[in-house]
Design brief:
Layout lengths: L14 E7 L2 E6 L9 H11 L8 H4 E5 L12 H6 L4
Parallel strand pairs: 2-3
Antiparallel strand pairs: 1-2
Length: 88
């Protein structure tokens, strides 16, 4: 969940790609802006969301990569989130 908007970061379109190879998980994600004041929180938020997956060692088996290419836009949000946030 996004700490400011209380909306799923998946529904916000912040998760670009998840790759699973053997027991390793690579998450490619972005933030709404490179200057996001809460950027440091997202690593822990994503890892905490994965804690319930049996056998996954979140600290060792998960790599989270931030990218700003392509830059995030509101078009990446689901229609439901855009409506919830009054952007429709």
């Amino acid at each position: 969940m996004d700490p400011e908007l209380n909306v799923s970061i998946v529904d916000l379109g912040l998760i670009y790609k998840i790759t699973i190879q053997k027991n390793k998980v690579h998450i490619l994600m972005t933030l709404t802006t490179p200057g996001c004041p809460l950027a440091g929180m997202f690593d822990a938020l994503v890892r905490n969301a994965l804690l319930d997956i049996p056998g996954l060692r979140v600290k060792q088996d998960v790599e989270i990569e931030l990218t700003f290419d392509p830059p995030w836009t509101t078009d990446m949000m689901t229609e439901e989130v855009r409506a919830e946030l009054g952007m429709d």
